Protein 1
Amino acid sequence: MGVRKELHLTGNLGDGMQIEVDFGKCAGHGVCALEAPEIFDIDDESGLAVLRTERPEGQEAAVNAAVRGCPERAITIA
Ligand code: SF4
């Protein structure tokens, strides 16, 4: 069973908000998926964060909470 280890996963989730997860840092804690379940999920196979592609309105606060809550500082937004 291989573990996918992509360096980065970037998603443009609308309103110009760009979210990037650095898989070099991500350890699969899942804090992001708890803070912003509409945006983040944990991939069953790799155990790392994945971005949902569809973005409901009004998720900025949840995304910011995920950025602050990530223990590995793996999430950046621009
Ligand atoms: S909280 Fe950070 S380290 Fe944990 S799964 Fe999410 S992005 Fe990865």
Protein 2
Amino acid sequence: MSLRLLHITDSHLYHDPTRVLKGVCTHDSFAAIIADAYRRFPAVDAVILGGDMAQDEQAATYRMLDSMLPHWQAPVMITPGNHAALEHLYGELIPALKAHTGYRDHVQGRHWQIIALNSHQAGHVAGRLPETELARLQQLLSASATTHALIALHHHPIPISSRWMDAIGLENRDELWNIIRRHPQVRALLCGHIHQPLDVMHDGVRVLASPSTCVQFIPCSDTFELAALSPGYRWLDLLPDGVISTGIHRITGIFQSGITRWRPDTLYSCASFIFPVGEELQNSRQRLFLVHITTRQGEVGACLV
Ligand SMILES: [Fe+2]
């Protein structure tokens, strides 16, 4: 029997639901993502909140996040990011989740084990897995050597050919990979933080990342640069034989305003195919064209250029 997961990450919510981050109202885009995900996937086995859920790190923001989640009747898992107030996460959000939908830091199924790690490092944007988390990972993997394993964390555990992002990834990734190499049942690592999809193999392990529910970053960029792509999330089906079926869904109708420069060279180098469908939209300031993007990994997205 397979397990179905959703990875919803980097919502960067404010307690003021009207606030905008880099041109996107993060409340509205998160609400649209959640609505789309619940409509497409009303029955799931776990929902992973991938970190950076509260941009302002306020207790009220975590309460708002809990109130926005639909009743999936599945445990929520959390991988805290650099934008995280652990006292509010553990004092507000997790108790609320336990009372409503359920909260787990690992899930043990018949064929799969899912482990959520905390790579939050107070005062730093880059991540680090503390000794306690590394020991917990080691213990969980050793206790369930016969089931496939997926490890989730916020910070990316491999370089992604993006100089500015690679400077703020997981600092002690070698320690993580040393543990993984001793446990061949690990099939995948799943991260947030990079605000873009990723699906590559590293040391025989699949490394996946997901778009943000708000602003998107341009892949393979040396410097911080925003992509004119709509918010999205990832679904995953963990099959009994260890195979992972996965894809991205992006919503339409929310995009980063103010981005008028399109970089097809970047998109071509980091995606595989682009199919403009030529649906012209109008707004008060500029003419925009809706295009759909399909990558080799099967992503179907939309952006306005
Ligand atoms: Fe983020």
Protein 3
Amino acid sequence: MSTRPLPTIGIVSLGCPKALVDSERILTRLRAEGYAITPSYDKADAVIVNTCGFLDSARAESLEAIGEAMNENGRVIVTGCMGVDATTIRRIFPGVLAITGPHQYEAVVQAVHDAVPPDANPLTSLVPPQGIRLTPRHYAYLKISEGCDHACAFCIIPQLRGPQVSRPAAKILAEAEAPADAGAQELLVIAQDTSAYGQDIGHAASTWRGRPVRAHIVDLAEALGELGIWIRLHYVYPTREADDLMPLIVDGAILPYLDMPFQHASASVLKAMRRPGNHDRLLDRIHHWRNQVPNLALRSTFIVGFPGETDTDFETLLDFLKRAELDRVGCFKYENVAGAPANSLDNHIPEDIKEQRWHRFMQTQQDVSARRMAAKVGTRIDVIIDEVDDEGAIGRSYADAPDIDGAVFLNGDTDVAVGDIVEIEVEHAEDYDLWGTRPED
Ligand code: SF4
């Protein structure tokens, strides 16, 4: 057998979980073709940089990552959202080997073939059935559609990624079975708007386990629930679909967790953002859900300092935060994004006001979070273990998605393994994290 080393590719994946899923698909395909994957620059024959082009700060981070890969390795293929701005990338880094946009898997793979020809030995062309994952083995992301049919004024994703294209339910479910069979304990369902899943294909049914499953988020979530592992939904819109998910949460088919980016609560700002909802309507919905699911964990993101946001709009937002009692919240100061309609709106907010509003927002939410976390002391919760070392274990509860939410610390508990789900009694809480131990009984 040939002893020639395998052609080896490195990858740097920036941006959102959706980009991470793109990276996984590219790697799965390359691995199936016999490429080795390395986390280090110096062992790679070429490096793929999967970029994010959403905010100006993300573009800067992407350019920095490309620069680092150029310096450390020199043979670089750029893909992802920032790839649509090939002119800028070429101007700064004329030596990059190829540039492709988001979801252009074929083009990325072709660029890799051109830069580093594949090994012809079929014995190396083996890939585990669950594919190659950039996430640890105990959880996996599941992308159910590409693109977006909305037109939020601050966003260029629909321009970058095109209109929504949903995958058939049976394909998604088959893809979900692979990590579940390989031991994953948690699936994180993602799309630009998870609740709109299937609208573009008329919610057409496809056959899974001998029965039809509609391409609709409620039907899909119900079927995913049959896998018997944690199912966590991200990027759900506050629409009727969310109402219809509540019975599934009550039944335990999916986690009592919804990641729902509200972005604002003032009707006039939401209108300028071209998004639905207003303070009272959103609060009514949240109360309605919590009546059915009292332990529902809600995560959301907001933008402060959107053009035209008045002091009154901002106070409406703070009032919403206090009343909505959200569990997990991210907040961004508004930034122009090249090509986004919001850039041309009147009354852009000065940076110092954005900064002040951001601090007031974060302080308000910190108080809410501290109160909600303190209320968990003395209760028992299930925790999925993410890390174990000599000093103990770190995990997450149903209310914590990986990387973006809080953590649960099991100090001194080394008798668990990554991926275990264990019950703990909460003994201590801080603003965002919990501490606890496994009860004796
Ligand atoms: S829902 Fe709005 S913010 Fe999200 S991707 Fe679509 S247009 Fe962008």
Protein 4
Amino acid sequence: MGNLGAIDEGRRPYRPYDSIKRRTSGVQMSLIAALNNLQSQRGYLTEKDLRDLALERRVPLYAVEAVVSFYPHFRTSPPPESRVAVCRDMACHLAGSDGLCSTLEQLLAGQDAEVGTVSCLGRCESAPAVAINDVPLDGSDVDRIVTVANRPETAAEHAIAVGTRRWALDPYESEADRYGVIRRLRGGEALDVIATLNASGLAGCGGAAFPTGRKWQLVAQQEERTKYVICNADESEPGTFKDRVIINDLPHLILEGMMIAARSIGAAKGYVFIRHEYEAERERLAAEIESAQKVGHLDDSFDVEIFTSPGGYILGEETALLECMEDRRGEPRNKPPFPGQAGLHGKPTLINNVETFAAATAILHRGASWWQSAGVEGCRGLKFISVSGDVERADVYLIPMGTTVQQLIEMAGGVKDGKPLKAFAPGGASSNFLPADMAATPMDFEHLAKAGSMLGSGALFVVAEGRDMLELGANVLRFFRNESCGKCVPCRVGSEKAHRMLEDTLAHGGKRAQLELLEELSDTMHQTSICGLGQVALGPVLSVVKHFSEDVAKHVSDWESDGATERRRE
Ligand SMILES: Cc1cc2nc3c(=O)[nH]c(=O)nc-3n(C[C@H](O)[C@H](O)[C@H](O)COP(=O)(O)O)c2cc1C
Ligand code: SF4
Ligand code: FES
């Protein structure tokens, strides 16, 4: 039988559960943790590993295989010396990742290296993003990629350098001031946490904008004694990387937010669910947890563990995340019940995004009225936005909510190479594209929804004049097709059919009737998909059809003949 605990010296042990203070020691390791430990021994899982694990766990072999086959992180064949993963999603696509992939395949031919494609690595500002043996690198320097691929043990020396910045969200001037809210609460101050969050109007920053105070209240009202707090740090949507920066720069605000939440809802256990590509950020959080324990900010009343995700965009969906943490395939659950009623192990569970916890701490320190007055144009609060694509300084920006798209593009140095703006997507891959003449729209939930798109988790993707929008729409759709978990037939089959149809149109030309079919398919997927992925998958492509008639006409011979675009615009 394989040694489930032993780990090769040279390899970094993969630790799905990274507990600083293991109150759970003695409890059997999760199946996903055990699989990861096994994989870390020789880089892949053998059939014997799986059989031994099934025997040890007293579960059928198919149950273990079902988990292994779902997560892209698990390998069942020996890995090459060098695994080169190239992202080909929106930002990287614009930065030439398709060409980079072919170039690397040629340059590394005959070597013990595997050049493969991968979904968004959360490094869209360094597009085209590449990872070698899971270490993120800037793909614009091909020579360096080849050098590292030949000597992968040096990858860490070439990793994208990361500094830390001070942000206006942080209410603490110095380290000694940190954890001020939790100290005040412990000191007996009568701060009504939930009422303050409700008064501030803070909305969840993970995409759905659910009112945070109301969510905390709902979980607090549950009568179960065991409850959980989970910080969702899975961030995997193309164009989205602000959580990575927040974890790096403001881990104390996230941790304090989780501690306050736990106290407010009555939870003793918390988890941070983080994508495995964010190894440096995992370490940063682990260090913060350790230091908060040493200083005594984090006490026996609350235990926090870091759970490293075995990969896949769908795991960011809150119920898929729970399935994963419960050792199953990460397929979303039907709702209701919502996680706040029956979440992890059936217990009430508060799930919030990284930024939501950080903002909650700042609001509780400075007061609800500070947050309300922090926005502009009648909008509330501050917002971290990932800015990527055809822009001079792709990066994360903290803006007053209500800042216009145009102003934000100017903050980011303008459109790349001084070109005119053609289009933008204000909320990452799942948000609809809007044309340049809508760039005066304020970045906030209501204004962008009225304009026909959405803020989502806050990811402005900039497209310069000269780009083919139908091609870009197909790129976004490919991401959703690849990341569909396959549970709902309309999403699994519909995203594949729609993508094939678009690829065919791009390669050989198409007819208007085909694009009209996409609208029907989108309606069906919207009505019948369990989760947001299937519901919005065709939205970006349809927004291209709606707003970028000229690009559609390039590929669809009978497109403009009946003025369909004009009618759609009405
Ligand atoms: C396909 C899909 C992926 C998601 N990915 C994330 C994610 O990476 N991070 C996140 O916080 N929320 C993500 N969400 C939203 C979560 O389900 C959930 O609404 C959120 O974590 C709640 O936190 P909030 O109220 O603070 O926004 C995703 C939703 C869907 C449908
Ligand atoms: S909509 Fe798609 S991603 Fe979501 S549960 Fe259904 S198949 Fe999975
Ligand atoms: S890293 Fe390529 S799109 Fe995000």
